Amino acid sequence: MTSLTTRGFKIKWVNTLLPSRVYTLTVPEGVYWIRGYIVGGGGGGGNGSSAYGGGAGGSGGYIAFQAPVTPGENIQYSAGYGGGGGGYNGGYSWVQFTDYTTLRANGGQAGGNASSTAGGSGGAGGDIILRDYRGILVSYGTGTSGTGGTSTGGGTNSGTQYVNAFFTGFNSCIGSPCAGLGGNGGNLNQSGNAGNNGIVLIWWEL
Q1: What pLDDT, in 10s, does the model give residues 10-67?
Q2: CA dihedral 102, 134, 172, 17 (to 10 degrees)
Q3: Residue 202 and residue 206: Cα distance in Å, rounded?
Q4: In the β-sheet with 23-26, what is the strand arrangement from edge to edge?
Q5: Distance of CA 115 to CAs 39, 148, 156, 189, Å?
Q6: 76 CB burial (10 A radius; 0-12, 13-18, 19+)
Q7: Which end of the chain is less enclosed by CB atoms within 10 A, N or C?
Q8: Domain spans in the chain, listed from the N-terminal domain onward
Q9: Cβ atoms within 10 Å, residue 102
Q10: What are the residues facing 102 on neighbouring strands?
């Protein structure tokens, strides 16, 4: 748990440290609202062939949310892995509250492997699933799809432009490297690149 000051607001925030592990946040005393971002893992890029490049993986879906909470409430959350190069989808990231309200950002799809006659297709961006039983305010979107491979090289993914829901500076990339970015496709005779891991970031004002 880390404290920082952002644009005049002193906040505490928690972040997923290792993908696919389930973490529990116990809401502190005096906290009745939390905010957060959820980004699914990026899909891995496809492998290139001797004639064509592989397709790029899709970026993970994203959710920005603001939720009412109760001090002492336990909130579970987990971030998805980025998919491995060569045809692996990204994992989903999620947050679940005690009333089973669930916010889930799915991972991007893997880019296709190239063949001797065609480049690999780009992977679709991840979508989202909302099961809201407590009136959570959200904005969300599907991740950016990867481009297909060509005879000159592998496809690419420019990354999802996230909605500027709370702070300017979170509107293009969350984390370093960018969370949920789809992996580029492999160039000719090269393997595809892995997608970036997803992220869950939660904070509240002090």
Answers
A1: 566 666 666 778 999 999 999 999 988 899 999 999 999 999 999 999 999 989 899 9
A2: -50
A3: 13
A4: 23-26, 74-78, 93-96, 102-105, 128-131
A5: 31, 12, 18, 11
A6: middle
A7: N
A8: 19-205
A9: 15
A10: 96, 131
